[in-house]
Amino acid sequence: MKKKLAQVMVVTPHPDDAEYGVAGTVVRWVNQGKEVAYVVCTNGDKGTSDARVKPEELAKTREEEQIAAANLLGVREVIFLRHPDQGLEDTPEFRKEIVRLIRMYRPETVVTADPYRRYIWHRDHRITGQVTLDAIFPYARDVFSYPDLTKEGLDPHKVKEVLLWGTEDVNYRSDITETFDVKLSALQCHKSQVGHIPLQELEGRLRERHSSLAQGEEYALAEGFHRVEILW
């Protein structure tokens, strides 16, 4: 099987989560010449409070919105796994999907949701983060994990670092002062999710959040992550 190669892989539970969590940093990476791939785990078919919307139509809309946002950010490729919204489980099948993609794209950095955020946190975020971490270590790395993937030409791969968004334990900040406007525009592509929020209010919320994350730094706006360097 042909490997596709991307220095960064973003594994996101729903369409729009990556724009909230890492879009400003994605633009920085793209500007540095790095290839970025998105893996969108669910179809987002429950992401509305409008009972008149048909779930299958919402899923199609959200996929189109995600593609538009990714194109704006310069993301090279978006892979849709299309699991049902609110339906993710920590299963061998889901884990193998992520292992396959890690071995195929061979990223140095993987970004996903922090599964260890306490109390109120979307279950899909918890499951996505946990399955992704397990896929990274040890399953994507170990030669005797999924020998059928090796037979397909998808050799083991060692990810070098993980960045977790939505964390309560920020130990790494990324300057998005110069890329904030692109992040905001990418988030606006998700009209089904933020279209009801006046632009001034949406921008104000984001600026407040990212200004808070940049406290103590020399720059004005930051995205915050828990960073794990993988040495073994």
Describe, in plain words, how this protein is organized in 3D.
There is one protein chain. The protein has one domain (8-229): 3-Layer(aba) Sandwich (Rossmann fold), CATH 3.40.50. Strands 3-2-1-4-5-7-6 form a seven-stranded mixed β-sheet, with helices on both faces. The protein is α/β, with parallel strands linked by helices. The protein has nine helices and seven strands; from the N terminus they run βααβαβαβααββαααβ. β2, α3 (55-73) and β3 form a beta-alpha-beta unit.
* CATH hierarchy, class: Alpha Beta
Largest beta-sheet characterization: 7 strands, mixed
Structural class: alpha/beta
Find the CATH superfamily. LmbE-like
Fraction of residues in β-strands: 15-25%
Biggest sheet, spatial arrangement of strands: 3-2-1-4-5-7-6
Give the termini distance in whole angstroms.
Answer: 26 Å
Rg calculated over all Cα atoms? 17 Å
Question: What is the percent of helical residues?
Answer: 40-55%
CATH fold assignment: Rossmann fold
What general outline do the C-alpha atoms trace? globular
- Quaternary: single chain
Strand tally: 7
Low-confidence stretches: none
CATH architecture term: 3-Layer(aba) Sandwich
Count of DSSP helices?
Answer: 9
Provide the descriptors you would attach to this structure in a database record:
seven-stranded mixed beta sheet, 232 residues, globular, alpha/beta, Rossmann fold
Summary?
By secondary structure, the protein is α/β, with parallel strands linked by helices.
